[in-house]
Amino acid sequence: MKHRKFLLAETDIPTHWYNIVADMPNKPLPPLHPGTKEPIGPEALMPLFPMELIKQEVTGEKWVEIPDEVRDLYTLWRPSPLYRAYEFEKLLGTDCKIYYKYEGVSPSGSHKPNTAVPQAYYNKQEGVKRITTETGAGQWGSALSFACNHFGIECEVYMVKISYEQKPYRKLLMNTWGAKVFASPTNLTNAGRQILAQDPNSPGSLGIAISEAVERAAMNDDTKYALGSVLNHVLMHQTIVGQEALKQMEMAGDMPDIVVAPFGGGSNFAGLTFPFLRLNLEEGRNIRAIAAEPASCPKLTRGVFRYDFGDTVGMTPLLPMFTLGHKFVPSPIHAGGLRYHGAGVIVSQLLHDKLIEAQAVMQKECFQAGVDFAKAEGILPAPEATHALATVVREVQKAREEGRPKTILFNLCGHGYFDMSAYQQYFEGKIVDHELTAADIEALIAEIDTPEILEA
Amino acid sequence: MKHRKFLLAETDIPTHWYNIVADMPNKPLPPLHPGTKEPIGPEALMPLFPMELIKQEVTGEKWVEIPDEVRDLYTLWRPSPLYRAYEFEKLLGTDCKIYYKYEGVSPSGSHKPNTAVPQAYYNKQEGVKRITTETGAGQWGSALSFACNHFGIECEVYMVKISYEQKPYRKLLMNTWGAKVFASPTNLTNAGRQILAQDPNSPGSLGIAISEAVERAAMNDDTKYALGSVLNHVLMHQTIVGQEALKQMEMAGDMPDIVVAPFGGGSNFAGLTFPFLRLNLEEGRNIRAIAAEPASCPKLTRGVFRYDFGDTVGMTPLLPMFTLGHKFVPSPIHAGGLRYHGAGVIVSQLLHDKLIEAQAVMQKECFQAGVDFAKAEGILPAPEATHALATVVREVQKAREEGRPKTILFNLCGHGYFDMSAYQQYFEGKIVDHELTAADIEALIAEIDTPEILEA
Known about the structure:
2 copies of one chain form a homodimer.
Chain A: E1 5-6, E2 16-18, H1 51-58, E3 63-65, H2 68-74, E4 82-84, H3 86-92, E5 97-102, H4 113-125, E6 130-135, H5 139-151, E7 154-160, H6 161-166, H7 168-176, E8 180-184, H8 190-198, H9 206-219, E9 223-225, H10 232-237, H11 239-251, E10 258-262, H12 267-283, E11 288-294, H13 299-302, E12 304-309, E13 318-323, H14 345-352, E14 357-361, H15 363-377, H16 383-402, E15 407-412, H17 420-427, H18 438-447
Helix pairs in contact in A: 2-4, 3-15, 4-5, 5-7, 8-9, 11-12, 15-16
């Protein structure tokens, strides 16, 4: 009988989040004020976030304790299982060993509740009555809806209008957990009204939705804002994924040569890989960490490292990030969770310092890898997760060419049961590959007018 | 930290299926030939099933060994987790302890692969090239598609036309696993053509789809048929659910007073409850086993115990069952898996002998219980599973009135992520309760012309 699953006990849920900042040779640069362009301190974030999350955003402590109530709620679905993908290995005909950490067992079916739960908890502790957020594909919005419902906080989700219309079931899931979901742009905010005045039929974008959610939080004392990726504290919350995976790889008597995760804003990638990168930084190991991004939104592989806004309108602080420019609107690929113009600050610094790698993959190869995986292992992956899969397939091919089998671990960050329309389009041959041309990239970068990063 | 989950190791997957027939005080009566109405032996099933499954259908052995290859594939998702539903208990404000076994972790998201895998395996062993089956909601069809794909067998699914149109994503899941899916009635069979000649726009029914699938198998030497419930061997395969649950309840240091499962043809119910009924039969314990059926299809609570056909057209052997008549077409409720006119032979005998109980529940109370459960525990249940939930809610209420808290275990047999349109209708107030009147029942029973069961 094959030993496919490596399961931990509830008492194995990590007691602390891992803050890679403590181990980074070059620390992240400070954010800048959107108006003055001067470095800002944590107090600038107070209208948007509860104090405890702001502290976590800027802390240099290596380990941050997870509150008991958060660990308790984590037990609803954690520790998540780690699998050896014997059937997928067989399908690929490879000598590589492939493992995957499966985050689809969570209430909303992805890794997002790992940070939604502590974010809702700290807001509750500080008396916040309402949390606003944006969502694209709906993974983050549904995770936050679940967490807010548990802690008795109102949740307002600004969902990109085109997704709102295309993914009614994600919206329904949020409603099930009591959230109010609005098709963004709305008439509820200045940002939304401004967009609608220009284009009453605007399909919306993640950047617009962020502007709306941020505005609502900034204008109301009892309301805060929550973000599902990019920020340091969000990445840190996800490190429970990699910490568990590390223990599970030890149970399997194995250790990855390569760890792979999909890349949108960075939390998925950070969650799995940072606890393995810790071994590189502490012990000089040489585990390769690969961020898998869509070729249609290649900020890591083809963007520039400079200050940029987190939203389209330019309301947020300026962050030092790999970016394609905050005005870039990625083409409407099916991995909505990866359609973001920039990368989180920590990940950007690590990439700049060549401590991690990135690869850009095409939509069709992603769906092909996803279908093959479903045939072999029985789980249909979320479109976001298929980016990691396509990268695994490439690494397997490379290992074959080199005649050196590798041990590969990837993050199967969610199931695709709310993304069946995307698979339908794939089967019907309607999926189109979007890859930016050199001229596209040049034009995008030429348009960026935010401050450059001055090398030390 | 709450101990919510009780997890077993892969080596804890049962080595044998439990055959309750060995322990039944009154054994099931033999099936009758559809034409002669005389008792038939196992050889009559040979055109439809591989020999090993026929042997299992009629065996009196108490324990039937599970082949290594089947146990190996079970490890893709088994053992499934058992949970203490602390959050749901809190929501209900009860002193009862509520546990649930969660079968939604399987590839197709329900308990159905537990029998699809061994059925495909034995067919493969005996050189079968193609398996046909019917499916309503699609849970069974997708489970069999998955299993056939693994063992390299073709799979043909006759899907009730109205479901085929309403549930395109279930069909897509079957396609992902390589199955051919037809909207039944089709032009491929005599049965289908006969129906279409009468009504070219027939929406189809489970009975018609069974007739089509059976005909295809009977007419082709390299093709067999598979059924997802009702038959003895199917019920037996599901007993791994209850065997695991029994171990897990022991891990929890607890034992249920009441076990509850949804009821369609009997495999869901048998899977969870038979290993607990074994304790009643062997040791004289008094665990209550409750089958939760829809009030719109109340064969257990309001049907008659007599011989009846398994399909609408009357092609199958006559089985001694609780039935509403094989011509009964249940109203189109959302728990498609429970829309079957009759109950499996073993369960029918047990109910006749008062060794189990049954309750009929209404659609709205089921969806209400499902939404409450999702809010509390984070998992949105399949409509079928909500029938068990509604029954649990009733038993909790009863325990409150009696002032005697109970320990209740139920089968959360699947997730509802492919059934979101049903929840949408519930939220929009469009769910209608269907309950048969006394006159309806009288008329249905008066129409039954199959042989009565002569009491010994």
